[in-house]
Fold this protein.
Amino acid sequence: MTIYNTVLVGCGFRGEMHARAILANPQRFTLTAVCDVDAERLTQFAAAFDIANTYTDADAMLAAERPDVLCFATMPDMRLPLVELGVNHGVKAIAFEKPMALSLHEAKHIVELCDRAGVLGIVCHQWRHSPLWQKTYEIVRSGEIGEVHTIHASSRPSILRVGTHLIDYMFWLNGGHRGAWVLGQAHGADAYHEDHPCPDHVSGLIEFTNGVRGVLDCGTLAPHLMDDDNFWEDCGITVYGTHGYVRTVLGTGLQAMTRTSGPTLLTEPPDPAPQEPAHLLTLANWLDDPEQVHPSHVEVSYAGFEVLIGMALSSLQRRKVELPIEPVPLLPVLPRLKDALLHAGTL
């Protein structure tokens, strides 16, 4: 069984999660070096994880270490430059955080770079690996709730923080069917001052290619499925079928009424266990066998990101947006939407 040499860029909280995931799979990965522009944070991180090789420059690290896998957990504006570095240094795979980019043009470029170089790229949509979400999938795909007609997803965190997770799992729970068109509306520009710059709230409709209707609510106006202080776990998906439904909320668990449960409400508790180890293990399996394609590969992640940007474009241009979006807008949609939101309500 091949063990893949891996390097990590980014020593913040999410970097810690990725480091633990790499080290949790010693039979598949070795973490040979870490990199961060903050030298003090880098030193503390390396000591905590007993990593000898440290760098403050990702290019220098890739040149010296020549890894199989580049893993990075940085701010979203660094996605494309780091993918370019990984491709240029001949890595076999790149695993990075969501969102995959801040613009559709950058995201498309990432997909094309990986495709041309034969690099396996994956985005960290890890929830699907938990037993809780696997149970959700089993209920839907078994037909226990009948024929699916509507999927409603919501989160109090924004589209760039959690929205890409939700769209990825909507695709998955809908049998892999992607969006045919979207209609969206946006509100508020305060979140543009954060490190994941986007509207405060985005709501929209998704018509999937199989006719299932999706509803998305992300941000400050989303329904509260949990108490106010449980902001980050207040993310959920409800799948409605002709004979029942299943709802899974990150922080409260699963509820379902199915063909066989009758009036009895089925429940499962939340599963707080980190799923990054399983997410990366699935990458090792894909590296071993090209037929074992990772479910969060960059092409499907691009399709999910496109849904969100399509909603933003719909809000900006006040129209239904057909998918895929072609040609890809050269000017980023989210900054243009910010300008419109800042002038909202003026005549």
The chain has a mean pLDDT of 97. The chain has ten helices and 15 strands. The CA atoms of residues 171 and 247 lie 16 Å apart. The radius of gyration is 20 Å.
